[in-house]
Specification:
2 copies of one chain form a homodimer. By secondary structure, the first copy, chain A, is an alpha/beta fold. In chain A, 45% of the residues lie in helices and 19% in strands. Chain A folds into 2 domains: 1-34 and 99-207, P-loop containing nucleotide triphosphate hydrolases (Rossmann fold); 38-98, Guanylate Kinase phosphate binding domain (2-Layer Sandwich). In chain A, a hairpin with a 2-residue loop joins β5 and β6 (81-86). In chain A, α1 packs across α7 and α5 packs across α6 (144-158). Chains A and B meet through β8, α5, α6, β9 and α7 of A and β8, α5, α6, β9 and α7 of B.
């Protein structure tokens, strides 16, 4: 049988403060069979960081070239450094049958959707907006104005939910992980992914 | 918050001999939160069978009336008795938030698809056609001709896979159950099912 199932690109995103990093870390701890995407960055390597393991380290010029050549699924600049997702790494992993997970901000997810619409877009949502406020407030001793403006951003990010395939409520980290694992397993059972396998089966059948 | 999530109608079907009944029984044993549909039948109650629990017992006339009034999602006749799935029972359960599972033959599933396209159609598939043949042969001491004709039917039933949403391989019963549970959980996370909930949330928000 010559059917080889491809992997999935899973994009996990959601409003700031919802707990994307925590959920991703929990998935890793569980040993969920997901390959973590490696970002390209113009940031200098820190001690112990290995090129191609922690990041793909690039010069500004190389990074700029990747953007121009469409080699990045998405990219953004934070405090003077650029970060992006190399499309080749993602495509090669998927062709090899690996499910790749990408944990990014909502703006990045929209960029991915334009370039890779066949990805699986999962929106991590807070159980309610009060809870999100608690989490934003809980982060430190920000002023009321700053909290207010962060809530405004978070609410506008919530509006982007409709661009996603799935919504996973992050009421409890373990439950959120269960849902993400279920979504990935279910997507592998979708008829359009598997029908080729059974067509191959019928072709090879000698009964 | 006035959002109430509806249940799903899960239709589990697949070729004869694939093990639909075994998988359904295993789901019950596991305690998977699924409500089993109750069939209407013209068959006489056997000892211990309770109307509205094991079956809805109907006269021929009542059953015919249900067909004419579109009260059956699907129906079929076996050895002189009619069996069908009452649409009201299914709809009421779903409205109450229960996930209902229906284990039926492929012809019945096609009938349900016409009347209830929003249901979730899961095709239980054999790991390969040889395995299906083993199972069909293993049932008894049928003649080669009968086995051949059953295989013909099974193959034609395999062609109907494309009408389904998901394909679950029944390589191992427990694995098949895992996949079915994942599909149901994932479907509850689909954005089109949940977006209303978050619209309600935003409407109620006073932050």
């Amino acid at each position: 049988m010559s059917f080889k199932e491809k992997g999935l690109l899973v994009v996990l995103s959601g409003p700031s403060g919802v707990g994307k990093g925590t959920v991703c870390k929990a998935l890793r701890t569980r040993g969920t069979r997901l390959k973590y995407s490696i970002s390209a960055t113009t940031r200098k390597p820190r001690e112990g960081e290995v090129n191609g393991v922690h990041y793909f380290f690039k010069t500004r010029e190389q990074f700029q070239q990747m953007i121009e050549q469409g080699k990045l699924l998405e990219w953004a600049e934070y405090v003077g450094n650029c970060y992006g997702t190399p499309v080749d790494y993602v495509r090669e992993s998927i062709e090899a049958g690996d499910d790749v997970i990408l944990e990014i901000e909502v703006q990045g997810a929209l960029q991915v959707k334009r370039k890779f619409p066949e990805a699986l877009f999962i929106f991590l949502a807070p159980p309610d907006l009060e809870e999100l406020k608690h989490r934003i407030v809980g982060r430190g001793t920000e002023s009321a104005d700053l909290i207010e403006s962060r809530m405004m951003v978070a609410k506008s990010e919530m509006e982007l939910m409709q661009n996603y395939n799935y919504v996973v409520e992050n009421d409890q980290v373990e439950k959120a992980c269960d849902r993400i694992e279920a979504i990935v397993l279910a997507e592998h059972c979708r008829v359009d992914r598997l029908i080729e396998k059974y067509t191959v089966m019928k072709g090879n059948d000698e009964t």
